[in-house]
Amino acid sequence: MVLLYSIHFKSIGKGVVFGRMSQIKGANYIEIGDYCRFGNNLRLEAIERYGTSTFSPNIKFGKNVVINQNFHCTCASSIEIGDGTSITANCGVFDIIHPYEDVSVNPRCSEIRSKQIRIGKDCLIGMNSVLLPGTELGNHCVVGANSTVLGSFPDYCVVAGSPAKIIKQYDLDKKEWITL
């Protein structure tokens, strides 16, 4: 357990635990709810300036969020992770891209674009998955391991693949899973 007393978050709840080797940039743009747990090798980056652009990032973790080891999150706009959501090992959530439009510029050095990400309550993000700018997951969604997620997905669905697609969805009226 690592206690980060010297970092001044926008807000941080009670009972929050960080693993070893946490790298946090722009903590004043990060809100963390009660009883969140972060695994080893956490990397959170709230980007307020990149190249010639300025941003107003906001990263928000709800209550009881569990983030496993080797999580990387970069935000220049808004990333919201709902209450009770779990993100397994080796995942990334990025609301930025380097569009690589000018081939004379190294893509890493090109300006960035940002589009908010929202992950609903009680979701499970499978190992080695990446969520890209503009992704919206409803409540109670599962992302299969090794998925690349982009787009909007409704409540109570399972998405998987690269690019991720809905593979099954829970029908609340029939009270059963429908395979798509």
What string, H for helix and E for strand, traces the elements in order? EEEEEEEEEEEEEEEEEEEEEEEEEE
Helix-residue proportion: under 10%
The number of distinct β-strands equals 26
Task: Quickly count the helices.
Answer: 0
* Strand line-up in the sheet with most strands: 2-5-10-13-18-21-24-25-26
What percent strand?
A: 35-45%
Mean pLDDT: 94
Low-confidence stretches: none
Structural class: mainly beta
Please, what is the oligomeric state?
Answer: single chain
Shape: globular
- Largest beta-sheet details: 9 strands, mixed
N/C terminus separation:
42 Å
In angstroms, what is the radius of gyration?
A: 17 Å
Characteristic key phrases:
7-stranded parallel sheet, mainly beta, 180 residues, globular
Describe it:
With 180 residues, this protein is an all-beta fold. It contains no helices and 26 strands. It has strands at 11-12, 17-18, 23-25, 30-32, 37-38, 43-46, 49-50, 53-54, 58-61, 66-67, 72-75, 78-81, 86-87, 92-94, 96-97, 113-114, 117-119, 124-125, 130-131, 136-137, 142-143, 148-149, 152-153, 157-161, 164-171, 176-179. The strands form 5 sheets. Strands 2-5-10-13-18-21-24-25-26 form a 9-stranded mixed sheet, with no helix packed on it. The protein has a 7-stranded parallel sheet with strand order 1-4-9-12-17-20-23, with no helix packed on it. A 6-stranded parallel sheet has the order 3-6-11-14-19-22, with no helix packed on it. It is globular. The termini are far apart. 32% of the residues are buried.
